[in-house]
Description:
The protein is mostly helical. The protein has a single domain (2-321), classed as ABC transporter involved in vitamin B12 uptake, BtuC. The protein has 13 helices and no strands. Helix 3 packs parallel to helix 8, helix 4 runs antiparallel to helix 7 and helix 12 packs across helix 13. The radius of gyration is 20 Å and the shape is globular.
Amino acid sequence: TLAAAAGCLFAALAVGVLSVGSGEFPIGPAEVLRTIAGSGTPAQDFIVNELRLPRVIAALLAGAALALSGAVFQSVVRNPLGSPDLLGLTQGASTGALVVVITGGSSAALAGGAVAGGLLTGLLIFALAWRQGLHGLRLVLIGIGVMAMLTGVNGYLLTRAKLMEASRAVLWLTGSLDGRGWAEVTPLLIAVTVLLPVTVVGCGRALRMAEMGDDAAHALGIRVERVRLVALGSAVALASFAAACAGPVAFVALTAPQLAKRLTKAPGPNLVPAACMGAALLVCADWAAQNAFGARQLPVGVVTGLLGGGYLVWLLARQRRAGRL
């Protein structure tokens, strides 16, 4: 498990270095590393540390946060289709961001609106789904219902926005890392630094035990509902902060935990490998969005949507063949 996580992390960092060095003014990997270490020229320092590095750090952190959030949700609902994308959380973050956009708010206010929208949506879903505890199927059904409702709300908000505001909102809703600076990255960095240990160290073992069944977990001394609340609360916060920084990037939270599980072939939620896989997926997708389509750069959400949509179709077909659909 640790070897798989280390491999994914190394791949993510390697692609990140290549991404920092690519662009209109290419810089070699060795020069990129020297510049990050503080030994570059003033021009290289500006290009690397001020223009390109924040975007790569945002991709790494947002990918890890989304994947960790998805791994928690899939573990709790015991379904590979459980993720913030499909349970309404990213739509809630989008609603909060759209309210800020149509009122002419700043980028900082947009990020705050996204976090608030995601957290409030999570609280709403938990409140509606709670019945002597949180249970997987009920949580999924409530989440899908809330997602459908918020999708309609977001469509209405877009129709009320002015043309320039609507264009800004559509770009954000696609999921984009373009123009991200340290001001956008710092809140996500703080959130990941605090919530990743809480989730992995505080809840990882308990989630693994809970996957064996509530009765078995209780027999082992696990307070199942308390663990689920803490883990899901952390997952909601991680998804909200990731959306605030990068927009509602599609399918990373859905695909990364399953790819990590197939790579490790280990039981349990595989939280650390999932986070490393998510970081690798998003930084690779962002590199492809910048370099794989000629002179035209795409929002990273377009690339993850293409890849993740294909994965979702494959996953549904596989579950149907297995008789689970």
